[in-house]
Structure formats: C-alpha cells, structure tokens
Design goal:
172 residues, two-stranded antiparallel ribbon, globular, Arc Repressor Mutant, subunit A, mainly alpha
C-alpha cells in the first residue's frame, strides 16, 4: 500500500498508518478513501449547490417514500443513512431552512416524518447525471477493482458493529 504526498518536498517521507508497526490501520485507510471519494463526488455535484451528504439525504428520503408509500420517520431515515437520530436531526435543520426537505408530525406519538420537497426532488433529479459522472470516474480510476471493492465494503459494513449512538462529528 502506498500514499502519494500532496506537497513538493520530496525529502519528507510519509510514515505508513501502522500504529503497532505490523499492519495498516483499517479505519485510517477507510477514512482516507472516503475523503478522496467524497471530494470526487462533491466536485461533480457542485453545479447543483448540494454537497454529497445533502444530496444523499434528499435522495434517501425520497426513495424511502417511493418504496414505502409514505415518508420515512427520522428514525427510519437515520437507519437508512446509517446515522444516529441526533446527527440526522442536526443535519436536517439547514436543509429545512433551504426548502429541500420538510419535517412534519406523523400522527403517531412523537414520531416525525421527513419528506423531500418539490425543490429537493428537483435538485436531486438535476444531480443524477452529475452523480453518474462521478460514479463513472470512480469506475474508470479503479478499473477491475471497483466491484470487488464494493463487495468488500458491503462485507465490512455488515461485519462491524453499528456506532450505538456515538458518532464522529460531520459524519453526514
């Protein structure tokens, strides 16, 4: 495994992310890959004014509603996005203010439903071709490793325990 420096001083050597000196840190490698993938998608989605987290949230709210015939609750949407409710609630506030989603009472206790607004759905539709361009660029960059990587990530997500209410700031 290698990491390429992003600076010009060729005399400075980056140490490998190996805290005990025996193997690469899974978390470090996943986060580094996530940062690079996020930058790729963010760059492609920039023309619609949404970052990847906002684009994913609007899209997932809309997809959940289409699949289930009703908008998802905050709890259901948090589960679909693999976030805790607190993180999702915090990230919904600016999206509500921007008119991309709306939150309303469910009529069942304290549960609230999240719906992509007409403006949110329009922004999502406008981003589909941009998302596809980012996805195609990732396919091209990874070549034959794309499908095995996706399978390995599915296995990783399924095999590691959920956060149990603890999140890292800015996960979404």
């Amino acid at each position: 495994m290698s990491r390429s420096p992003q600076f010009s001083d060729e005399t400075f050597v980056l140490p490998p992310p190996m805290p005990d000196g025996t193997e690469f840190c899974l978390c470090f490698q996943l986060r580094a890959a996530a940062r690079r993938a996020s930058a790729l998608y963010a760059e492609r989605l920039s023309p619609i004014g949404l970052g990847l987290p906002q684009y994913s949230l609007v899209g997932m709210a809309w997809a959940c509603e289409k699949q289930n015939g009703r908008p998802p609750s905050i709890t259901e949407l948090a589960a679909a996005l693999d976030l805790d409710r607190t993180t999702l609630s915090r990230n919904l506030k600016p999206m509500i203010a921007a008119g991309l989603v709306e939150v309303s009472p469910s009529g069942h206790g304290r549960a609230k439903l999240v719906r992509a607004t007409r403006e949110g759905r329009a922004a999502y539709r406008a981003g589909v071709a941009l998302w596809r361009a980012a996805q195609d660029q990732a396919h091209a960059a990874l070549g034959g490793q794309f499908a095995p990587l996706m399978q390995a990530l599915d296995t990783t997500i399924a095999g590691l325990p959920a956060a149990a209410g603890r999140t890292i700031a800015n996960d979404l």
